[in-house]
């Protein structure tokens, strides 16, 4: 499959003859891969951790005022549980990873 993608990128105007069975196999592969990605994304969302602003400041080694500024600028998006403000751990992890 990767070879076909490579060929298509290198020679986009190339005509290829493909048997119906191979076309069906390719379609099933694409559906399988897409389904796998969606299931993984849903699984990650279901197990998402939400942490307090204090914990975020601790993890990022900064002051709470920095978290507040990031919030106001849209750099960090809070999630509210009633009156409690929390941040997605996955967002914090992305910041830590660069």
What does this structure look like?
Helix content is 64%, strand content 11%. It is mostly helical and 98 residues long. The chain has two domains: 45 residues, no CATH class; 48 residues. Strands 1-3-2 form a three-stranded antiparallel sheet. The longest helix is centred in the middle third of the chain and has 27 residues. The protein starts with a helix and ends with a helix. The mean pLDDT is 88.
Order of helices and strands: HHEHHEEH
Structural class call reads: mainly alpha
- Gap between N and C termini: 32 Å
Total domain count: 2
- The total of beta strands comes to 3
Report the mean per-residue pLDDT as an integer. Answer: 88
> What form results from the Cα inertia axes?
elongated
Residue stretches low in confidence (pLDDT < 50, at least 5 long) are none
Major β-sheet annotation = 3 strands, antiparallel
Query: Which strand-content bin applies to the residues?
Result: 5-15%
Descriptive keywords:
single chain, 2 domains, 3 strands, 11% strand
Outline the secondary-structure elements.
Elements: H1 2-10, H2 20-46, E1 50-51, H3 53-60, H4 64-73, E2 78-81, E3 84-88, H5 89-97
Antiparallel strand pairs: 1-3, 2-3
Helix pairs in contact: 3-4
Provide a concise account of the structure shown:
This protein is mainly α. The chain is built from five helices and three strands; from the N terminus they run ααβααββα.
